[in-house]
Amino acid sequence: MLLESAGQEAWITVLILGVYALVVALAVVWIACRFPDRDPLKAIRCTLGSWATYPIVLLYCAFNVLIYAMSLSDVQTFTKILLLPDTPAWVLAVMIALFTIYTVLQGVEPIARTAYGVLVPLVLVILVLPFGVGKEIRLLQIDPFLWKGFSGVLRGAWLALPWAGQSLIVLSLMRHLSLRVNPYKWTLIGVGSAHLALAIMVLLISLVFGSILPSRLLYPGHELFAIVALTESIERIQAGIMVLWLCGSLINITLHLYVAVEEGSLALGIQRRGWITLILGAAGVFLAQWAGGALYRRSIAREAWWIGMHIAGQLAVLALLGLATLLIRMRQGAGTSA
């Protein structure tokens, strides 16, 4: 979608999205650091009452369940098209959901350890990739820089803002960080490096395939790795990279489901999370089947109501968090004065 809208300058769009993602994430970090345990939702529940967290948690959980379902749909479609074409899509979705539910029930620590073991090699692969496809780069097949102006870049950024807003998830990760860890530094490193690596990937796609062909490919990233399959050993490396990508996608799916389960359980005071995990996991499977194929989801993603719904939800969560924090500060100040 980025390559369709922004063309060969889509890498600039990714950097713009990175700025938006950092603003959202750092705003959440700043709010969380106003409290001793970096858990604003807990502080709101204890100070203002559980009712004050319900609007925030409802929007936040709905957003994460939706991202979980859409990501699940993307992975099942990718797996069916490229790896298991004879397997029904709903079977793949159920298998992925069962794995995700099991992982969520294990807690955040196994998810974090697995994520570190997968994402670091993925970033290294992307950083080394320019040396692997250097011979395939053809500068003469791309247009001059910003040949069609900056409007396409901005249009691509607008279409992808819902995706960039996923950095809101740091709200649920802050409480699990050690108080000795600087959250600002690691947010900058995590969110910034992810978008920088993606920008490098998108730039390489444009340099290798030109300014027109990438927008016509369903999975241009996969095609980029395919062109370096010159020998059997390289083909094995390509398969390993695909496994890493699938593992990274599964971690993303698991993390969004975990966040929805944890925040929903805390808001409702639920101790045993098995049934709520099953309900939200199954809901994601149904939503993934309802979402249709990749082309249908791309058409929905261009709709103004879809983009506006995501952005409004993200900003509403930030605004409600900020308002609740202000009310807590005012109440504490009034108590101190008294």
From TrEMBL:
Keywords: Germination, Membrane, Transmembrane, Transmembrane helix, Transport. The keyword Transport applies. GO terms for biological process: spore germination. The keyword tRNA processing does not apply. It is a multi-pass membrane protein. GO terms for cellular component: membrane. Belongs to the amino acid-polyamine-organocation (APC) superfamily. Spore germination protein (SGP) (TC 2.A.3.9) family. The chain crosses the membrane at residues 12-31, 51-69, 89-108, 115-133, 153-174, 186-213, 239-261, 273-292, 304-328. This is Spore germination protein KB. Pfam families: Spore_permease (PF03845). It is found in: Membrane.
